[in-house]
Write a structure and sequence with these properties.
Elements lengths: L9 H7 L3 E6 L13 H17 L2 E2 L22 H17 L4 E6 L6 H9 L6 E4 L2 H11 L13 H10 L21 H4 L18 H23 L4
Parallel strand pairs: 1-2, 1-3, 3-4
């Protein structure tokens, strides 16, 4: 449990006295027949915990259900509205601010949470106080550093990257079948109209057969290094 959610006490938080909080945002949606519905939440928690430890930040518990409407036709998927997710982030930010923590890192594990980009942009209008992590460039660099066979565009869902991260975190989370579930579907111009079902019968778009625990570790290592630039920008004195 401690690999995915903070078990810190108030005494721990007092000792750390962090000025920056980290909020993992996942989802509860299909990831083929071999990865858990909670995959995005697990991924977000892995990344958030790693950067919280490496940079001494306050680790918050995850948001476990978000905007997964493109997966609605697959069993098990549950969503909240974009306005609800936006409100949750806003409430968390307000609560942190009341405690004297004015900077928030949102670690997004689900690519369909488009609303988070707007939330972060709006928050930063008056001063730099939020970042969304990882962004596309961070993911691309992590794939390259890990020697992934697939690109971010190819490996959209339940593919090499997510399988690798879960194999690294806990191989028991990955069921049999990932080695024979590769499926590519590019381009995807009507994804917002048809959802995932318009491009994949299995729910998979990517190359899970290339996933390894070693790549998962390398991906996390790379993301931790990339996060330094986000933190530097957030904590730099106002120009």
């Amino acid at each position: 449990m401690s690999d995915y959610i903070s078990t810190a006490t108030s005494a721990d938080a007092r000792t750390r006295d962090a000025a920056v909080a980290v909020l993992p945002v996942g989802s509860f949606e299909q990831h083929g027949d071999y990865l858990p519905l909670a995959t995005d939440t697990i991924v977000a928690c892995l990344i958030a915990r790693r950067i919280a430890e490496d940079y001494r930040l306050l680790l918050l518990p995850p948001v476990t259900i978000s905007c997964s409407h493109e997966h609605a036709s697959f069993p098990g998927t549950v969503s909240v509205s974009a306005s609800t997710l936006s409100a949750i982030i806003g409430d968390v930010r307000e609560s942190l601010h009341a405690r004297g923590i004015g900077t928030l890192v949102v670690v997004n594990g689900h690519g369909g949470n488009y609303v988070l980009s707007h939330v972060v942009l709006q928050a930063n209008v008056t001063r730099r106080c939020m970042t969304l992590f990882p962004v596309r460039e961070d993911w691309d660099r992590a794939r390259q550093d890990a020697g992934c066979a697939s690109s971010t565009s190819q490996d959209m869902h339940a593919g090499e990257l997510e399988t690798s991260l879960l194999l690294h975190a806990d191989p028991a989370l990955v069921r049999d079948g990932y080695a024979s579930s590769d499926h590519l579907a590019s381009p995807r111009p009507f994804l917002l109209v048809t959802g995932m079902a318009g491009y994949t019968p299995s729910g998979v778009i990517g190359l899970p057969s290339h996933g390894t625990a070693g790549k998962g570790k390398a991906i996390l290592d790379s993301l931790s290094r990339s996060f330094a630039a986000h933190l530097d920008l957030l904590t730099a004195p106002p120009s």
